[in-house]
Amino acid sequence: MNVLAPGGHRGLGVLGPPRRSPSPPASTCALRFSKDTDWGNGYVATVEIVNTGASALDGWTLTWTWPTGWQQVSSGWSANWSQVGTEVRVTSTPDNRRLAAGGGSTSAGFVGTYSGPNVLPGAFRLNGTVCTTR
Questions:
Q1: pLDDT tens-digit profile of 15-72?
Q2: Alpha-carbon gap, residue 82 to 11, rounded angstroms
Q3: 3-class DSSP state for residue 62?
């Protein structure tokens, strides 16, 4: 490889060892997305949210982005559900807002519709943190 050496001289140079990027922090949440039934243009799904972190959560917000514009949350239960464009937002209710540290979990469900391939979201975030998927 040609490099510009000190003093402006061109020549072959040797690069040092590659720099390592820092590892991303371990996730403090896990999520399981399950399609319970599907009838070709709609389905019922359940999301299980697990707090794998060292601190309890008192209130939570789960978000994701559909990869297509034809996927929609029609209605939901066991949480507050909303969708604007492709962005889905799910928030806790008074009875499931507290998730204990180290494995506290809750589940919520929804009815979804679609008019093309029903592609799962690439990432789920709990209170802004990307969750591992199970």
A1: 555 565 555 568 999 999 999 999 999 999 999 999 999 999 999 999 999 999 999 9
A2: 60
A3: strand
